[in-house]
Write a structure and sequence with these properties.
- The chain has two domains: 142 residues, no CATH class; 57 residues, no CATH class.
- It is elongated, with a radius of gyration of 21 Å.
- By secondary structure, it is mainly alpha-helical.
- The chain has 13 helices and four strands.
- β1, α5 and β2 form a beta-alpha-beta unit.
- Helix content is 67%, strand content 3%.
């Protein structure tokens, strides 16, 4: 099975049936051809099994989380790459496992998947409490200081597996666009659309990438799809102008 087909098969599953680690490794396999996904999954299995064997039967959830933190960050040495946050290797799970270095989203995947294998039902969230307080304070001019912890917790909706995978792919897309590595950016964009074909902005962004790559007819199709999904978007007029230019160019090419 090609990696494109494998990705489509993985993300077509119900959310609860997706193995987050497998899906993250499938993203990496586009960049690392021949990547041994089962081997990396076995490493995560082994980490989870090692931790689980150390836990007492009567251990509390809090104690298990403390043990997980110690195992991953103190004993194994996983940490954030503070010196080169935008290194694309930080977004590829195989590299994170090899180097024990990543960014919050990929370290969270390791954390959730090792924890799950050790018996913890962990889910990701988009923000921490302090981050949320800071963001609300910025909007409300200090009003967040009045919010209780219970009120803030209600705002911290759990991120689904597809949300986490989308964030990994958007990170990669942004990095490769910044580096002007358009074919790699296109790969991330295509996987984002396979992940959620209803996300209008991804068609617009892929259309812009195709445009840069001089794949004009493909760009036309994506821009048209964007306008179908978001006819009243703030940038609809700008996209229509790009579309008109491409239609004229395509007509000359014919």
């Amino acid at each position: 099975m090609s990696m494109d087909r494998r990705w489509e098969e993985i993300v077509s599953r119900p959310e609860e049936s997706i193995d987050l680690a497998e899906a993250a490794l499938a993203i990496a396999a586009e960049e690392y051809r021949g990547l041994d996904i089962p081997d990396y999954l076995a490493r995560i299995d082994e980490m989870g099994a090692t931790l689980r064997q150390r836990l007492r039967r009567d251990i509390t959830t809090t104690e298990t989380i403390i043990a997980l933190n110690h195992y991953l960050f103190d004993e194994l040495g996983f940490s954030g790459n503070a010196t080169d946050y935008y290194d694309p290797r930080n977004s590829y799970l195989n590299e994170v496992l090899d180097r024990r270095l990543g960014i919050p989203i990929t370290l969270s995947i390791v954390y959730v998947e090792v924890g799950r294998r050790a018996g913890l039902g962990l889910r990701g969230v988009s923000l921490g409490m302090d981050d949320l307080r800071q963001r609300i304070r910025a909007v409300q001019g200090g009003g967040a200081a009045q919010a209780s912890d219970d009120e803030l917790r209600r705002m911290l909706v759990a991120a689904g597996k597809k949300d986490i995978l989308a964030r990994v792919l958007r990170n990669l897309k942004a990095i490769y666009l910044q580096k002007r590595e358009m074919e790699r950016a296109l790969s991330a964009s295509m996987r984002l659309i396979a992940l959620d074909p209803r996300t209008a902005e991804e068609y617009r962004d892929r259309g812009a990438i195709y445009h840069e790559l001089e794949c004009f007819r493909a760009a036309l199709v994506d821009y048209e799809r964007y306008l179908q999904l978001r006819p009243r978007a703030d940038d609809a007029q700008a996209v229509k102008e790009r579309l008109a230019e491409l239609q004229q160019l395509a007509a000359r090419l014919n």
